[in-house]
Design brief:
The chain is mostly helical and 244 residues long. It has one domain. The chain has ten helices and no strands. Helix 3 packs antiparallel against helix 5 and helix 5 runs antiparallel to helix 6.
Length: 244
Amino acid sequence: MEFKDVILLLHPTFAVLVVFPLIGIVVNRALQVRQRRLQTLATSKSKIPATVGQEHVQLGRWLTGAVVGLVLIAFANDIIGNILDKKVWNQAPFQVIFIGLLFVAVIGSLYLLYQAREKKWRGIFATLTGMGLVVLGCQDGIYRKTDQWYISHYYYGLITALLMIFSLSILPDIYKDKTNRWRQVHILLNCIAVLLFIGEGITGTRALLEVPLTWQEPYINQLYEQKCDTKPCVIQPLSLPPNH
């Protein structure tokens, strides 16, 4: 594999080694938190330690950062690859500078979201982070499959990241709200996020099969360029080099 292929594999590698294990632990802690709350309401006692709530919060904060980072890795790979392949720097240098600043802005906004305490600032930085991700996702080179948006790895990932950002922004409100309205919103959104994570695993596997490695690209492009004048369509087989 070439260096470009190694960079391509950073996204699935980070997902498998970091994000998905975190998802399992966070879901486990969430179930324990709920079980402890129900036991406490019923008998005023629970064998589940009180620290499980703090662990759930801390791991959830890590998960948000990991998911946003995972999306940024995927975006960076596609966008930078498009810039290099099409030599965008020579044609529109200010566009490249803008994209670079946008990556910095998203990372900076997420950092400030973690630091913000007031509701107003949490809303501002969450909005800026989410808007930055959406704008980056609209850049040329992103593997979107918009014609199949309902099973698109890109749309599942972007929506999941936005849900994680929103959940992080409302976290302090969950503990201040005596009506548990924000807690119910948090539970609902994260149940949707879990379903999207499952979809991410399925669509991500498909994307790995659809995105060719560097040495495969010429043959895949040649297959697409072959035209069929008769039906049924017959594509001539390609001869690969002996080392492949």
